[in-house]
Amino acid sequence: MKTEKITNQSLRAMELEGVKAAIEELRRDLFGLRLNSKTTTVKDPSQFRKLRKNIARGLTILHQKEDERAFEMIKEMFHKMMENREEAGSQEQAQQ
């Protein structure tokens, strides 16, 4: 099980799919820890909190990356729309 703290820098350095994979791995680790806690005693109960916090960090970074991606797409669409508008305006002036 991987319970070390995932840093914000390491998550931000990952691509979107990498962050999703890291979150899924952490969720699997948390599930395994819960399963083990029912059958045996857990040596370090703080692992539960650490895993939950790492999952929350990952989800926060994931949502920020998704928002950034959506913003970039909207920005590109806006620039294309403005270019098309300028081209249409210059074509109208050329016809007159």
Task: Describe the fold and architecture.
The chain has three helices and no strands. It is an all-alpha fold. It has a domain at 8-68: Orthogonal Bundle (Helix Hairpins), CATH 1.10.287. Helix 2 (16-39) runs antiparallel to helix 3. It starts with 7 loop residues before the first helix and ends with a helix. The mean pLDDT is 88.
| C-alpha end-to-end distance | 72 Å
Radius of gyration: 23 Å
Strand content: under 5%
> How many H/I helical runs?
3
Uncertain segments: none
Compute the number of strand runs: 0
Average pLDDT score: 88
What is the CATH topology of the domain at 8-68?
A: Helix Hairpins
The CATH architecture classification of the domain at 8-68 is: Orthogonal Bundle
CATH class of the domain at 8-68: Mainly Alpha
Structural class: mainly alpha
Helix content: over 70%
Q: What best-fitting shape do the alpha-carbon axes yield?
A: rod-shaped
Mind describing the biggest β-sheet? none
Q: Helices and strands, in N-to-C order?
A: HHH
Indicate the topology.
Blueprint: H1 8-13, H2 16-39, H3 46-95
Helix pairs in contact: 2-3
Name the features.
single chain, 96 residues, mainly alpha, Helix Hairpins, 3 helices, 83% helix
Brief digest:
By secondary structure, the chain is an all-alpha fold. It has helices spanning 8-13, 16-39, 46-95.
